[in-house]
Amino acid sequence: MTTDTAALIYDWNEKDRRGPILRKTPRFVDETIRDGLQSPSVRDPSIEQKMELLRLMDRLGIHVVNLGLPGAGKRAQDDVERLARCIVEEKLSIRPNCAARTVEADIAPIVDISQKVGLPIEVTAFIGSSPIRAYAEDWNVDRLVKLSSDAIAFTVRNDLPASFVTEDTTRSHPSTLDRLFRASIEAGATRLVLCDTCGHATPDGVTNLLAFTKGLLRGMGAEDTVELDWHGHNDRGHALPLALFALEHGVDRVHGCGLGIGERVGNTSMDLLLLNLYLLGQLDEGQHDLSCLVEYVNKVSEYTEVPIHPAYPLSGRDAFRTATGVHAAAVIKAEKKGELDLADRVYSSVPARVFGRQQEIEIGHYSGRSNVVHWLRTHGHEPSDAIVDKVFAFAKKSDHTLSQDEIEAVIEG
After folding, report:
1. Is 10 a domain residue?
2. Assuming Cys at both sites, which of 18, 114, 282, 335 could form a disulfide with 277, CB separation 3.0 to 4.6 Å?
3. Which domain holds residue 359?
4. Does residue 377 sit in the same domain as residue 237?
5. What does the pLDDT read at residue 119?
6. What is the pLDDT of residue 335?
7. Which whole-number Å values give the CA distances from 292 to 138, 199, 213, 271, in the listed order?
8. pTM
């Protein structure tokens, strides 16, 4: 008989919840190979590596990928074209978009690539909208409105989907946003991308901004024709919860990057976003193959040369690893009951085996004898009292978790 592990967990997350968590199916835009590569610490992956990431995104059921900013130059244009051809040739389900400043010179290469490849590419035309940016740049709102209208109109004339992106939306004045949103929608934009470019927002900020934007759309009669995206950065450490909050409050798509890479302290972590929505029961498992989620993170790390912190959730080396005696004892006892799901959940909210990981019991100065016995058995050693005593005594004198080589040396010595 298998124990119902869920019945053994009292879930405060669900207490007093009214109605569904999300009112619509969540959709995702992966910015790893565009915004993620704007981190000053990354290496730009090769085109072959970018294509491998593209395939993994497709397997994960991510709906849209930002292929880059072709306006940055020929190399960027070549990469975007090759990635777009990969989508067509391999019949991938993921759809492409590209970033562009609100100038024709940035949008024209996207139009050209779309026509050459035979694939519609969503244009996400961005412009700074906050008063602090306008002051620094000596911009006025009339100029911003004209640039935005002209860029969206040019995109629409060339039969490409037009999304309008206000950089630093969460620090922009409502009167400015009102003018910019209206002008872009009147020019043909079918999506507004609300950006927390500097990681400024709190949950109240997201609520207020969405209420304002939805009210404007209702007033224009555009609530059924214009969709909303959320694009967040992590300067305050809020990016992941705010992305979940934005979905709960009705945005259509959220943006993120593998491993949370990106400018300064990075973007919303796409992998942790998917993980949390899975744990909340909000992902259709038929549409999302999360068995490759850890591989996706590992490849992002390898290809960009951004290391995975040992304590990073799910994919970090220590995510399911413990040397603490009381924790290890609970996992070991659960395993002895022959119930792997119980062992997975007794000291973790994330089921390791679902994602190809497993619980690991190590030995350190906080360990108990059960750690030593378990480690010896799993590594092919008979846990005699003499050997257990030797390893246990050595661990208690150490200032770190013992490596396999250290433990083997103690056993042999």
Report:
1. no
2. 282
3. 321-412
4. no
5. 97
6. 84
7. 47, 29, 36, 10
8. 0.94
The answer to whether residues 282 and 193 belong to one domain is yes
Residue appearing with tokens 């190590």: 362
Residues 233 and 363 in one domain: no
89 exposure class (CB count in 10 Å sphere: 0-12, 13-18, 19+): exposed
Q: Establish if 5 belongs to a structural domain.
A: no
Confidence of residue 122 (pLDDT cuts 50, 70, 90): very high
Statement to judge: residues 176 and 271 lie in one domain: yes
Are 269 and 362 part of one and the same domain?
no
Convert the pLDDT of each residue in 338-381 to its tens digit.
888 888 888 899 999 999 999 898 999 999 999 999 999 989 99
- Could you tell me which residues come within 8 angstroms of residue 137 by beta carbon, excluding any fewer than 6 positions away? 128
Please state whether beta strands 321-322 and 253-256 pair in parallel, antiparallel, or not at all (unpaired). Answer: unpaired
Residue type, 293: L
pLDDT tens-digit profile of 292-340? 999 999 999 999 999 999 999 999 999 999 888 888 888 888 888 888 8
Do 111 and 245 sit in the same domain of this protein? yes
Which contacts qualify for 206-212: CB closer than 8 Å, 24 or more apart? 206/170, 206/230, 206/242, 206/245, 206/246, 206/249, 207/245, 207/249, 209/169, 209/170, 210/246, 210/249, 210/250, 210/251, 212/174, 212/177
Distance CA 81, CA 341 (A): 45
Per-residue pLDDT at 1 exceeds 60:
no
Q: Please report whether residue 16 resides in a domain.
A: no
Is residue 330 a part of any domain in this protein? yes
How many domains does one find in the chain? 2
Instruction: Check whether residue 287 and residue 329 sit in a common domain.
Output: no
